[in-house]
Amino acid sequence: MVMARCMTGSTMVLSTSQGYEILLPRNSYRGQRTGGSGWAVDVSPWLRPDASTSPERSFCHTYGRGKDQHLMVPGWPYSIVAALETGRTSWTALLDAIRLAPGADVAAATTAQIHEVVERLVAAGQWRPGDPEILVVLDAGYDAPRIAHLLGELPVEILGRMRSDRVLRRAVPPRVPGTNGRPPKHGGEFVFGDPTTWDTEQTVTSTDTRLYGTATAQAWNRLHPRLTRRAAWTDHEGPLPVIEGTVIRLTVDHLPSGGDPKPVWLWCSKLDMTEADVDRCWQTFLRRFDIEHTFRLFKQTLGWTVPKLRDPAAADHWTWLMIVVHTQLRLARPLTTDLRRPWEKPVEPARLTPARVRRGFRNLRAKTPSPASAPKPSRPGPGRPPGSKNHKPAQRHDVGRVLATGEAYKRPTHHKKGTKSRRTG
What we know:
single chain; alpha+beta; Transposase Inhibitor Protein From Tn5, Chain A, domain 1; 15 strands; 20% helix; disordered N terminus; disordered C terminus
């Protein structure tokens, strides 16, 4: 979607396949060399529940549309990669966005997306040999070990959250001389919910935080999931791999809301971690939630999902326009003045939020020269006369996977109605 076009001075111009150009600061994604925290990958849906004429819609998982309700709403899911920043900030640098097709393998699509972004940044000189590896942070909905296995040849480290009921395996202990039989492939079990199986951790760190009290991180080295030939590994050729990593258990004293703090389990593809590596991992995972602020800015402030577009290709163009707009706001951070509301607290110019930078961007835009000429006045077309009938109704599309039909397929009894929309006219 984006590839390097040219580099001039202290900036770099990236051009998208749709013809847009994004001006980015040079070395803006150079990891720890420029103070970066890592990358975050997540899916945000563009909900279109009533757009039965829009193709390629999927059932998107949504939360919060009702009291404690998890709903599956038709829409276009977008996988977005963003570079995170350190410190207390809600800014992110968007790197890529792709729309997931119905029935797509999320892990495979995410792997291909990260692979393309890394290759483009390496070609643009944003990562060079000797730089720290890029830390990619995922939430619990991703298969972190599988993605780490598929991206093994790239300079990336995968960090993902795991459920608290997982069971991993230890490394195989040294074989005793004279033992008969086939050597084992997996060691003993490591049960997240059973402390008796944890044994002694390799690394323990303790950090005082402002909101959570003391944060304690325990790390166990060389743990891997036991893979079986099902789901994503059904068609894997050859023996199943052993994907080892480091498991981190993060606990805090209290939560700002006063609720019961539950431990957070993380899995990282990096082995033999030091105390600094462990602290960097769990702190970067907390920074992952900054991408949620970006999604909220896109939808509530910039109007990403406001247009009622029918063609998914048009939605892709509009999504990249939003990325261009967000990039302009990020570059205007040191240039805008704070136009705060009467009830807002004053903040330093360098700590303005994206919404407050957008508020002051209107004064900056008026002083910026534009090479484009003034727009020509025009009027919209007449369209279909009021009261006339539409003789060419748009085609209706199903949501999600299209069920197979024919003599060789017998539809299950609970699929009698299929997934077609109730609207027929």
